[in-house]
Amino acid sequence: MFESAELGHKTTKEDYEAAEPALRAALLEAQYDLLDLREFAVVVLINGIDGAGKGETVNLLNEWMDPRHIQTWAFDDPTGDEAERPFMWRFWRALPAKGKIGVLFNNWYTEPIRGRVDRSAKRAEFEQQVDAIRRFEAMLVREGVLLVKFWFHLSKAGQKKRLKELEKDERTRWRVTERDWRFFEKYERYRDVAAYALRQTSTGDAPWTIVDGSDPRYRALFVGRSLLDALQRRLAVCGSKWAPRQTEAPLPVQVDRLTLLNSLTLRQPVERKHYEDELERWQGRLALLTRSEAFRQRALILVFEGADAAGKGGAIRRVTAALDARQYRIVPIAAPTEEERAQPYLWRFWRHLPRQGKVLVFDRSWYGRVLVERVEGYCAEADWMRAYAEINDFEDQLVAAGAVVVKFWLAISKDEQLTRFKAREAEPHKRFKITEEDWRNRDKWDHYAQAVCDMVDRTSTEIAPWTLVEADNKYFARLKVLRTVCAALSAALEPGRERGRA
Amino acid sequence: MFESAELGHKTTKEDYEAAEPALRAALLEAQYDLLDLREFAVVVLINGIDGAGKGETVNLLNEWMDPRHIQTWAFDDPTGDEAERPFMWRFWRALPAKGKIGVLFNNWYTEPIRGRVDRSAKRAEFEQQVDAIRRFEAMLVREGVLLVKFWFHLSKAGQKKRLKELEKDERTRWRVTERDWRFFEKYERYRDVAAYALRQTSTGDAPWTIVDGSDPRYRALFVGRSLLDALQRRLAVCGSKWAPRQTEAPLPVQVDRLTLLNSLTLRQPVERKHYEDELERWQGRLALLTRSEAFRQRALILVFEGADAAGKGGAIRRVTAALDARQYRIVPIAAPTEEERAQPYLWRFWRHLPRQGKVLVFDRSWYGRVLVERVEGYCAEADWMRAYAEINDFEDQLVAAGAVVVKFWLAISKDEQLTRFKAREAEPHKRFKITEEDWRNRDKWDHYAQAVCDMVDRTSTEIAPWTLVEADNKYFARLKVLRTVCAALSAALEPGRERGRA
């Protein structure tokens, strides 16, 4: 969920000053178009970790755009007047009219999340509140509201640093309250509770945008561009003077080139001897875990995704080598059969679900929906956008039924892939592994990379996290896969241990 | 929820034999069109009260249509094989392919409802299960599945009668199990739990159809026609050889002329003396209730709907006469202002919500969305169809905040309305009350009647039920309104009493 927001994005003063004027002008123009058009209202939700720059950013938005047409609301604990009415009453009153922008700070997410963090609300109650929010937002969207949701994130170290800075300066000391520190003490819990709420409410119509709040210049440009992108895309599909744009995949809103993938060091040296020792060690561990008494009431579902020639097959073989042949099955996912195309896209995966005590390995998976189908345009944007939430629901059911779900993205560099392609062509018995299509896919490398980052940010959940595997060195990749599987299994099989749910 | 299904619909042998062949032929034709087209699958859910004829009806469907292309699944308690997989697994396996019809008996609703009835599931858990179902069904619909949901209903007396009949006949005795009788003992609870599930999952895309299960011929024709209607409507909007039909309000699927409204005896005699005594009595009671200590933590929200000249104003005055002027407000709802049109349709009602200890009277209300806006075509079918669920959510929040919500439909006959119109025109000081529009609305009388019946069936909930008021006699109408308000208030203000939630 927060992976991309912890990469430590930074924007230099020069870059900021170079980019800011154009962004400002574009935002102002979009705001006036919105106003002329009066066809829809814009609701901007500002939530997230204290100290991540929510306030500064909102002030900036008011500075960049025409504040006469932006209503900013900061909600504190409900006053008597508000407390005597339904929970949502004060938020309804804050809704902007068509043509206007409403910025809602500490909105309908704040109380439910706080209530769950300090345990005044049971988990089931909290999940109901989150669900009521999803229904409410769905209604807003169907009523024509453009809903833009920002979550400002900081790593734990980042938040501590930030709060201390604020306290040092007596002009800002007042901003750090007792409550801020109390919540900091519960950072992990707060993050997990928030992650759940974000995952459940990140729908195709109103997805969350996670903001790396650590660098003021970066977050300002990122939020500004994200808002601008949302405005322009919506204005573009409004009838009247704007010509409907093709529904194309959304242009990634990028401020810098730093992404989940390119921040990895793909080649990790491992000596052969070390590899062989470790391989034996972890395969032994996996053999024990999957033969344990406790595992008979569970199941293990492994998902392998990665570029062509990333080494999925090799990694899978190193895992299955540790398993009893009667215990596991490998499901290679290719284009759907005619039978499968006649069903909802998740059907072909449901049909393979294992019984208890079994291991199921997907060589490519349901994530094809948000990878190949998105990039190749096999399904509409609305379809792959809603797929993130549907996939999370799907994995939620797997975990609820006792399965341990481990997902791997094997990451290789474009050069390494080329080397492996050439090697394959050279070896007769491997030549079948390389096709025209593989070469074509290389042309779309950047589009796939973007799809992978979005996929990890939207579907790496507390119950089924993604593991990015640096795979230019096959030894390293295989060991990391085995270690991760063993860690996930032992965590799950340790009795009495909560499976990571807030 | 079950109002229309308890009217005791009946179909004579003659009517049945006259109608059945055409229905049969049309169903078969639609089935083959579906098969040729292969553009979508049809999932028919069969749920409801035991003994209400679910089995017989499904057998009939198989007899009427080509059973080779209907897959019927009856789910019992999960077998070992099924129990070891996620809850939804066995239902996914039962999904029909495009072009096919799947009839699912005791499906994903059965276990959650039973679990809640026998209290093995907490309310919050149950509500989460229901919500997971809604998300799952939304996904099916977006994947192109035509989802037709039937709930077979019987009144308590009706179910008892039915179970006894089955037991008497030794050919059917085996069908009545211990569990059936155990559930019969909990009839009210079962009905309330089911009502909640149906309300929460009756969405615009996949609404429930409640079947009066008491008469075999009636329910057969009703289910057959409802299914046919759904099939034809969907086939009509499929590209290929079918010309897209205008999105018009759905033709009511009627087997007989019996409806909620025309089953009322609209003129109820009341003597003037009796009226005056009772009026004084109930106004006194209301005065006490609204001045009670307990009411200071609550609020009272009254909704008055009814045809023109049904006597809403007069009834409202008789209520407010009992109240302290500082305590109540009357909100007359006319066409929305420009300010209100710039907001989601519920916004203008939220803005009026009262503080605690107050009484708010809506003279017409948010139900305009599913009445005038539906009938006059001011909003699309998709919009008023989704409004039922949105309105239920809205009222859910009112009640959760402590408000008592009482909703009245004042029902008068078309003749009585004419008489009153003429009287108004005769009296100079009342002439302003009657406009051209009022006369025009009379032409759409039947459309409004249908909209009212749908409204009551879809929004008369355990937390905010509708009261139909026979209003040809104003005395009777006013007394019934006052009595109902007092009853609702005293039920709510009696400490420790659950507000009707399952």
TrEMBL record, chains A, B:
- SUPFAM superfamilies from the entry? P-loop containing nucleoside triphosphate hydrolases
Q: Give the GO terms filed under biological process for this record.
A: polyphosphate metabolic process
Residues forming the Polyphosphate kinase-2-related domain are 12-233, 271-491
Its Gene Ontology molecular function terms?
Answer: polyphosphate:AMP phosphotransferase activity
Judging by the UniProt lineage, the source's domain of life is: Bacteria
Q: Which residues form a coiled coil?
A: none
In the UniProt record, the signal sequence range is none
State the name under which the record lists this protein: Polyphosphate kinase-2-related domain-containing protein
The species is: Azoarcus sp. (strain BH72)
